[in-house]
Amino acid sequence: MQYPAHLDRTFRALADGTRRSMIHALARGEARSAGELGRDFRSAQPTISKHLKVLEEAGLVERKVEGRVHRFQLRQKPLEDAARWIDRHRAFWNGAVDQLDRLLSEVARDGNR
Amino acid sequence: MAIVDETPVMVRRHLAATPQNVFAAFSEPRLVRRWLTPSPDITLTLLRFDFRQGGTYRFGYELPDGRTVIVGGSYRTIEPPSKIVFTWIIEPPDEHAGIESLVTVTITPEGTGSKLVILHEKLTRPDAVARHALGWRGALDRLPALLKREQRPHGL
């Protein structure tokens, strides 16, 4: 199924501290070049390029080529999809346990009659 | 970056009922039907409910907009009155269909009542990778501006 495979790529891309920091650096919305990101992270350019490639394949960043400069911009949708998947289950269980709490109170009341 | 020691979904709650009664809410169909839904306007139909180790279940959730979401799975571990482990898979055509996640319910005595902990794991495959660096959720948390999405009041 296509959608879960997409979520897999998102979570795999997010399962690395450097890549999460890079997402954070790009979160202001401005496109940054690989060189700028390399300076920020004090990492060798090949390392930065490798991380950017993983993020790009996961659809988390978009590459824009301007002459010799490659600029990278964050794409929000995969992050929103990942967050929605988690939120959906958090909301489910919070709501269900609220209802369980009420049900158990009712059962206790009925039992005491 | 700090590794965030947390699982995507964990709910803890003190309940004013004995562990036996809390366990019964998971094991007895007449009780399950009354609470295992995210909100009162989402109704649950037990399409299949075979509560035993290796047994399977299929829950039909009818949403206020008329859609039905079906969730199924199997009971991996049942240890009355303290532990239940089951798989949780949403069926097609849902956007999240086919992902096999795992729910662990732990019930322990606490004061005159019980402590209920629900852990929903493997939401983030590939978990072998993600669980070693669970900070990804921290990453999402640090991006509030980015995550200005509509808030869903309830799951499903």
Strand-helix topology:
The complex is a heterodimer of chains A (113) and B (156).
Chain A: H1 2-14, H2 17-26, E1 32-33, H3 34-41, H4 45-57, E2 61-66, E3 69-74, H5 76-112
Antiparallel strand pairs in A: 1-3, 2-3
Helix pairs in contact in A: 1-4, 1-5, 3-4
Chain B: E1 9-15, H1 19-27, H2 29-35, E2 43-49, E3 56-62, E4 68-79, E5 83-90, E6 101-110, E7 113-121, H3 127-130, H4 136-141
Antiparallel strand pairs in B: 1-7, 2-3, 3-4, 4-5, 5-6, 6-7
Helix pairs in contact in B: 1-2
Please give a structural write-up.
The complex is a heterodimer of chains A (113) and B (156). Chain A has 113 residues and is an alpha+beta fold. Chain A is 72% helix and 12% strand. Chain A is built from 5 helices and 3 strands; from the N terminus they run ααβααββα. The termini of chain A are far apart. Mean pLDDT of chain B is 81; it is low at 1-6 and 126-152. The two termini of chain B are 33 Å apart. Chain B is an alpha+beta fold and 156 residues long. Chain B has helices at residues 19-27, 29-35, 127-130, 136-141; strands spanning 9-15, 43-49, 56-62, 68-79, 83-90, 101-110, 113-121. The longest helix of chain B has 9 residues, at 19-27. Classes of the chains: A alpha+beta (113), B alpha+beta (156).
Mean pLDDT of chain A: 86
Biggest interface and residues each:
A-B, 45 and 55 residues
Strand fraction of chain A: 5-15%
Q: How does the major sheet of chain A shape up? A: 3 strands, antiparallel
User: What low-confidence regions of chain B span 5 or more consecutive residues with pLDDT below 50?
Assistant: 1-6, 126-152
Please state the overall shape of chain B, judged from the principal axes of the Cα atoms: globular
